[in-house]
């Protein structure tokens, strides 16, 4: 059965798991998610005074790694889960986090030099609208870094197994993490995802796989001629 991505249900789910989100991520990835996020961010060139938007910012990991790479950047994290935003604000008081929906961003066009989105798009039912909104608010020639699970191959199935068993061991109630495995398996392959971004005017600049392809990162540029 296809996993439901009703925005209200998704928001409720993330509100429910927000307080345990970091702890759970550390367990199911053996702490590796932090390393991967840091490596992914290191692919971006961050210049002073750049305006950066981290979409689906969760508890603020990516925004934090961006700020760590260049403190003289202006970073805004947006997430529609109030609990996630609450935690991100507590963890990173020097970064701005707003409770906003990535399919209806409250920013004028061409507002950001860089956009990042990590493990977010997979949870958005109207992913096309989220990509269109990213394109709109990104400056001409600006870059978008996308990070999420990658290939659906054997190694990925081992990951699914570990996630299910570990969460069950710790919590018994493994429902939200059943969602994680299902949504991951129903999400685009990196190749199809690249096509989705390209169909909205983005140009692929770089692709990098981590952990034998379990995680995939792409950097796109906003084509300056796409809407001429
Ligand atoms: C799996 S978490 C990823 C959090 C963080 N980026 C990370 O890498 O750890 C997905 C986040 O996307 C948020 N989200 C899902 N749909 C959204 C939407 N339409 N607008 C804003 N945030 C959304 C959820 O609330 C959740 O915090």
What would you say about this model in short?
The chain is 45% helix and 22% strand. With 228 residues, it is of the alpha/beta class. 37% of the residues are buried.
Features:
single chain; 228 residues; alpha/beta; Rossmann fold; seven-stranded mixed beta sheet; 45% helix; 22% strand; globular; binds S-adenosylmethionine
What is the structural class? alpha/beta
The total count of strands amounts to: 7
CATH class membership: Alpha Beta
Output mean pLDDT.
Answer: 91
Cα shape? globular
Low-confidence stretches: none
As a percent range, the share of helical residues equals 40-55%
Report on the structure:
- With 228 residues, the protein is α/β, with parallel strands linked by helices.
- It has one domain (7-222): Vaccinia Virus protein VP39 (Rossmann fold, 3-Layer(aba) Sandwich).
- Helices cover 45% and strands 22% of the residues.
- It contains eight helices and seven strands; from the N terminus they run H-H-E-H-E-H-E-E-H-E-H-H-H-E-E.
- The protein has a seven-stranded mixed sheet, sandwiched between helices.
- The protein binds S-adenosylmethionine (SAM).
Question: How would you summarize the topology of this molecule?
Answer:
Blueprint: H1 7-28, H2 32-41, E1 51-55, H3 61-69, E2 74-79, H4 82-91, E3 96-99, E4 112-118, H5 127-137, E5 138-149, H6 154-171, H7 175-186, H8 190-199, E6 202-210, E7 215-222
Parallel strand pairs: 1-2, 1-4, 2-3, 4-5
Antiparallel strand pairs: 5-7, 6-7
Helix pairs in contact: 1-4, 2-3
């Amino acid at each position: 059965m296809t996993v439901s991505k009703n925005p209200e249900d998704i928001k409720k789910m993330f509100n429910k798991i927000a307080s345990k989100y970091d702890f759970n991520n550390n367990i199911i990835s053996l702490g590796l998610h932090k390393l991967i996020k840091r490596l992914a961010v290191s692919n971006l060139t961050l210049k002073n005074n750049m305006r950066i938007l981290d979409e689906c910012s969760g508890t603020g990991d990516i925004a934090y790694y961006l700020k760590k790479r260049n403190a003289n950047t202006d970073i805004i994290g947006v997430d529609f889960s109030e609990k996630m935003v609450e935690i991100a604000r507590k963890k990173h008081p020097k970064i701005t986090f707003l409770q906003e929906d990535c399919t209806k961003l409250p920013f004028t066009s061409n507002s950001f030099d860089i956009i990042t989105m990590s493990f977010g798009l997979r949870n958005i039912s109207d992913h096309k609208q989220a990509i269109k909104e990213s394109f709109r608010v990104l400056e001409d020639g600006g870059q978008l870094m996308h990070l999420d699970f990658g290939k659906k191959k054997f190694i990925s199935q081992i990951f699914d197994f570990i996630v299910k068993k570990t969460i069950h061991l710790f919590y018994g109630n493994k429902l939200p993490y059943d969602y994680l495995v299902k949504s991951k398996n129903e999400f685009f392959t990196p190749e199809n995802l690249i096509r989705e971004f390209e169909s909205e005017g983005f140009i692929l600049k770089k692709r990098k796989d981590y952990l034998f392809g379990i995680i995939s990162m792409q950097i796109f540029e906003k084509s300056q001629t796409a809407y001429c």
